[in-house]
Amino acid sequence: MKLTIMTLFKETIDAMLAYSIVGRAKKNNYIAIEAVDIRPFANNKHLQVDDYPYGGGAGMLMMAQPIYDCYQFIKEKSTASSRRVIYVTPQGKVWNQKMAEEFSKEEEIVVLCGHYEGVDQRVIDEIVTDEISIGDYVLTGGELAALVITDSIIRLIPGVLGKEQSFEEESFSDGLLEYPQYTRPAVFRDRKVPDILLSGNHQKIAAYRKEQAIINTFHKRPDLLELADINKSERHFIDDYIKKHCKKGQDVL
Ligand code: SAM
Fold this sequence. Notes:
Layout: E1 2-7, H1 10-17, H2 20-27, E2 32-37, E3 50-51, E4 61-62, H3 64-77, E5 84-94, H4 97-103, E6 108-113, H5 121-127, E7 130-133, H6 143-154, E8 187-188, E9 191-192, H7 202-220, H8 222-225, H9 232-245
Helix pairs in contact: 3-5, 4-6, 7-9
The protein binds S-adenosylmethionine (SAM).
């Protein structure tokens, strides 16, 4: 997969891309990822990239021309047969794990980071295929959003997490939150790791973890249970759990 982030703050992106799992994925050629600075594409003497909005109003807007030319540069260098172009914006569809899974199968993704009051609508109309938000709040610029989105995509690409880590049982992968996890020591401040996890019985451990994932989801995000990937007996388990643990009249699901 090739990922390109169009930004006015290339150093911010470069610094983050050098580390951790993303840095390793890049080094081991699981992905090609780079940030491209929009500013050098401005066709004016002072490399100005923003201007006042027509019709008045507060703040400045990113101009269409530098973004469009930057995108053409990226496109001309590319050999990909298909490409999604994301504009990160508070007005977009709110990002989630399902979308990360969908985008992780793409050949090429380009992300446009806005700044100031945003971007001239005409370049959005011209090049963007997807408008994506990372939540209902307003950030100063799109860089953090682009990093959130690209990180969640990259870790789903086969090979990136390595054998020792896996996303298959992580929160949201089957519509549930993950079960609680424990590491050494077996007792910490009188709190003991559940016996079953020390039993070595993998089948029982798997069943226990699924139940714990359901309970965890029920308490923290009951809204997810409606659509979660759970079978009939697991549904019964939830019903029994609700009967045993919820007070009469309490609105739960
Ligand atoms: N005036 C814009 C509006 O009201 O929709 C907000 C502009 S915001 C100050 C500047 C830039 O930050 C946006 O162009 C966008 O790229 C990015 N941004 C801000 N909040 C975001 C969010 N929740 N998700 C994704 N990107 C965001």
